[in-house]
Amino acid sequence: MPYAEGVLRRRLREILPVALEPLGIIIITLGPVVALTTLSWIVDDRLQSSWAAGWGQAVRLWLLAFGVPIDIGPDALAVQGLSEGYSLTIAPLGLLALALWRTWVSARRSSDAEPLWAAWAIFVTVTALLSLLLGLSASDGTASVSVAASVWHPVIWLGCVFVAGSLASTAAATSERATVVGWVAALGHQLSARIPLGLLRAAWRAIGMTAALLLTAASIMVTVSLLFNWMAVVAVYDNLHAGWVGVITLTGLQLLYLPNLLVFAAAWLGGAGFALGTGSLISPFVTQVAPLPSIPLLAALPQGAGWQSVFVVVAVAAALGGAWYGFGQLATDVIAGPKGWGVCALLALVQAAGTGLLLLVVGALASGALGPGRLQDVGVAPARTLITAALVFVAGFALLIWQRLRPGATASVTSR
Asked: Which helix (H) or strand (E) holds 77?
């Protein structure tokens, strides 16, 4: 009995600290937003209204990061002729990324807890309780959120990352981890029995490198565009007359949405483009936009079309780089012979489908409703991701054919 009690106490000491992890995640991610709304309440509002209004705004933004829609009442905006409310659904991916990263760190820190399933249960339970409290305090007279969605959205996002992080950590060698890893390994063996494992690895490398190069190019594009349009961005700030607190708050909010802008830039480079309102399209081939809201970052949007269509070369270069990195070391006997053309087409199709699927998923996460009326449609149109997939397919297929036909190609082991 003393030994059993000692084991129980040791496990409780390992598991109970997990209950504090969700609170730490919320403080790190929600705290800066609350600080900004509090600063605005002190400086701009001069303590005239209730602090609860700023708290509600901060909590709604935090919940929005996890995909919880915000229902805005018609009294929220002093817009003439606005008689109906609308939903705000476009998530600040920067805030979501910060929350998921902190959850991953917490999972690896808690991965030595035993039993691991108890740590998962405690984390999910505490996350659900805290999310419930936040959801209950988020609604006011101008905006509201669904309490149920406020609970299960954060639980799904944070819970899945916490479980994955704890399983990925090498600090824990529990039976749960061994079971899951064994199941994944068995699935990999089943797939490799039907498809050469070297081809699966090559396809994964090609898709990952293509996406990484495209995102890197998008980051460079956004940076250069901001530098070239810096005065236009400053002019929007000046026209807002927001004061120094308003400038800090608006800049912080735009930083939270910067990953969304990077996704839009990647879609633009890939030819798919993106919309900033119903009926609008911003792409290298055509630019059709209506008057935009006074958001400083929007002043750096690409203007016009014409010569800008040459930027699709960036997507082609990313696809070539991905195909070379993933498929460049494949044995030539894999794509040799009468079936080689079909194998080349299949590999290029896998690379294109994977890249298109990634753009489709991140595009859906980055898109949503930004305001009333036509601003309910902002982001990447799913059907237009086929343009990017087609460019990747052509580039990947061309490189594989070149590898198949180039002089001096040597065969190597097919099981890479």
From this structure: none
Give the whole-angstrom CA distance, residue 124 versus residue 21: 10
- Alpha-carbon Rg for the chain, nearest whole angstrom, is 25
Residue owning tokens 């890893």: 181
Residue 33 three-state SS: helix
Cα angle 113, 115, 116; round to 5: 65
Q: In the block, which residue shows the tokens 């460079």? A: 220
**Counting every residue, how long is the chain?**
416
Q: Exposed e or buried b for every residue in 336-370, given b needs 16+ CB within 10 A?
A: eeeebeebbbbbbbbbbebbbebbbebbebbbbbb
Measured distance between the N- and C-terminal CA atoms of the chain, rounded to whole angstroms: 54
DSSP 84: S
Tell me the torsion sign for CA atoms 265, 268, 272, 278. positive
- According to DSSP, residue 308 is labeled G
pLDDT of 344 higher than 50: yes
The answer to whether 87 touches 63, Cβ cutoff 8 Å, is: no
**Predicted TM-score of the model (pTM):** 0.87
**Model confidence over 349-396: pLDDT tens digits?**
999 999 999 999 999 999 999 888 888 899 999 999 999 999 999 999
Q: Are 385 and 356 in contact (CB under 8 A)?
A: yes
Distances (CA, A) of 148 to 66, 69, 134, 144: 13, 11, 11, 12
Question: What is the rounded distance in angstroms from the CA atom of residue 282 to the CA atom of residue 274?
Answer: 5
Between CA 202 and CA 194 the distance in angstroms is 15
Question: For 355, how many CA atoms within 13 A lie in the half-sphere containing its CB?
Answer: 42
In the chain, DSSP finds a helix count (H) and a strand count (E) of: 14, 7
Give the span between the Cα atoms of 398 and 8, in whole angstroms: 62
Exposed / middle / buried, residue 60 (Cβ in 10 Å: 0-12, 13-18, 19+): buried
Q: Are 130 and 23 in contact (CB under 8 A)?
A: yes
Separation CA 129–CA 125 (nearest Å): 6
- Asked if 283 and 396 count as a contact pair (C-beta separation under 8 A), the reply is no
How is residue 44 written in tokens?
A: 């701009």
Tokens of 280: 């609008």
Token pair belonging to 286: 């055509």
Q: Which two tokens stand for residue 93?
A: 């991916």
